[in-house]
Each structure stands twice: as structure tokens, then as C-alpha cells.
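Re: weekly structure request thread

Next one in the queue (104 aa):
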Amino acid sequence: MSTPYDPVPDGFEHATVTADGVDLHAVIGGSGAPLLLLHGRPQTWRAWRHVMPVLAEQGYRIIAPDLRGLGDSTRAPGGYDKDTQAEDLRPLPHRLWTGPSTPS
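Done, posted below.
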């Protein structure tokens, strides 16, 4: 399990977004078009830690969340199906993107 004290790649930072009552932890960095990196089970954002800087250098805003119930994201009593997790992730690029306008 990762913690907020786990080191992140240079130029990246920890962030938390609340979506549908679940606090989703993410590591973000870079600038440009948002690129959402999703890990498998039972991994966390750290599965992407070596790739994140390379993608950021290519001009992407990297968003690597911990899925609900994993890493530093909070657990929920239910809702671990794909549709619910997709709804969790939908607001992340919009809330964590720092471009000149909201991505479509």
C-alpha cells in the first residue's frame, strides 16, 4: 500500500479528489493534454512511476490515480464493479487538468 509520504517522480505531486463519496488519491504532473493511467489489481499508482516522467516529457498532464479501495483511495461498502469505478474516474481529468481550458 502506498502512503502520501511515498516519493513521487520529480515534477509530480499527490492530489485527492472526492468523487461520489470516495476520496481518490492520485499522483499528477506534467502539462499538456491529460493522460489518465489506470493500474490493475492489486497495484497502485506506483505501477506507473517509471513511465510517468517519460510521458510528461512528451507533453502530457499525467494523472495516475489509486482506484477505490486501493492505495490511498478510500474504501466504499460497495461499488467495485467497472461501471462504478468508471464513474469515479470521470471527473479526474477535469479537476486535475491545468490547461488553458477544460478538456472535452
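Residues 100-104 have pLDDT under 50 and may be disordered. The first helix runs from residue 52 to 57.
Next request, please.
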